[in-house]
Structure prediction request, 416 residues.
Amino acid sequence: MSLLSSLLILIVSARLLGGLFSKLGQPAMVGEILAGVLLGPTVLDAIKPTPSLAGISELAMFLIILSAGLEIHFSDIFGAMRGRGLLVALVGFILPFAAGLLTGALFGEDLMRTLFLGLCISITALPVAIQLMNNLGILHTRIAHYALATAVINDVVALFILGILLNLPQQESIGDIFGTIGTASWKLLALALGVVALNQLLEWLERRKISVHAVPEALVRYLGTEALFGIVILFVLVFGTFSEMLGFHFVIGAFFGALFLDQRHFLASRYEELRGTLASVTGGFLAPVFFAYLGLEFTADAFDDLIFPVVVTLVAIASKVAAGWLGGRLVGMPRQEAIGLGCVLNGRGVMELVVAGIAYQKGFIGQGMFSTLVLMGVVTTLLTPFLFRRVFSGESLEQYRHSQMPDTPPAIGSQG
Prediction:
């Protein structure tokens, strides 16, 4: 089958199933992955993963990361790292990460597979968390405030750790490994500090009443309105290329580049136009291709037995609920609210699947581990609203919404 025919079938199927799952109150990505599973070698064997589809999937990954970065602002990160939100975020990352490491060790996985397992289990994806809590009507509650602070920090920390893991030598001494970790950490820190410094420079210019959005406006007047999207893509690609020059995956630089972009850098109308164009290109075309391609690469035959994926999924759910409960209790949440926070943190989705895809693409994990991580990401994301509704019944959920509305600060990321 030709590339265009494969794309046509893949996109139509992914959009239809994605739309169905959206109607059911689930993230569209779950239906899009299932579309790939149905069309791929696991079920119908109608479409096979090819280098051409892999290339389009990689472009989609770039735009998904760009969209995720645009949902986070520097103020969100600094706000999340202040006060009790940082404590919840640390517990929400460290406990599941440790549970993943222990699970990998118990099943005799090698160091690299164990590290990626812990990393994927520890992630809470910001875009998925926003969508799930919006569907539940709790985006302006205390649960949302702490959940989104945790997701912001988890996403940033996960990409930092990913950058270090991708630089680890395969078979070297402990000294070489620690040396590589140190070098990679300094490079990542330099990349992050460079973005922070640029952001501080813009704030300094703004305080002196120098129009920051004058540069993009001048480019738009010269090149035309339709060039704005291309200018932003080129800007973020520069960060991605610089990231690759430092030895990291391009999505890490793309994420930091997207973090740098803010509504302050554009006229308000231009920024909304940019987000609309990005949503159309990504959500309407490339994101379904990326998630469907993950489904194509998923194969049940890769499981030697079902014990490992079942245990990984159960550990992922239990560790996140426990982490949310513990973190919530440490900051004074009542028991029911703390368990509800843990349920929300189970929404992994986008970021976890991107990390799993990169690890598989680079050969750090095999087909079995990759399929396990895809299955875990889909199941935990699917179960999140059901688990939350088990904790908060219809009447108690309505009471909780009303009790939180008057005095709860807006949740991080709720503007997106």
